[in-house]
Task: structure prediction
Amino acid sequence: MNKSIYIISLFLLFSVQLFVPAQMVYQQEDALDTGTAYKFKTQPIDPNDPFRGKFIVLNYEMNSFETNDQSWNNYKGNVFVYLKKDAEGFAAVKTVSKTQLPTPDDYFMAESNYNFNGKVNFDLPFNRFYMNENKAYDAEVSVQEAQVDTTKTCYALVYVKDGTAVLDNVFIDDKPIQEFVEAYQDKRETIEQGN
Result:
């Protein structure tokens, strides 16, 4: 009797351990397949913040929300960021809340660390874009150059559904970063061969 209880308990434990990661993967895949696509404009990163491994660190222009509500002063914790699209089709904040609102608007959770003078500041949870390690450094350089060049537009494409936000790709002038980097690497090799 004890052996069968042990086997059933072990089976349940393994099932739970598989269910949790499988559910997380399902939510992300569902957001990519059926979620709403939002373009988030990026902004230059601190040049002293080096490339960390196989991903690019992304900073976003959309990182705060203006409010007259004084209860936000010195608030630290999770916030619900509700989205809309601006006139150019980029993501913009519709509102920010400390609790989930009964609205059909797309949203995701972010971390709010410092708020003052009617401004709610938050960090977006999708600030790392993983890439092939052989292209990662050139991708970082390309993104930094594009963010400084006012003739180029650099943005992240993020799918949002039911509070899940998944970073799909990074684009420079509507070209996926991988393609942009390949062109950058080809150009660099041509210059190096010419010397």
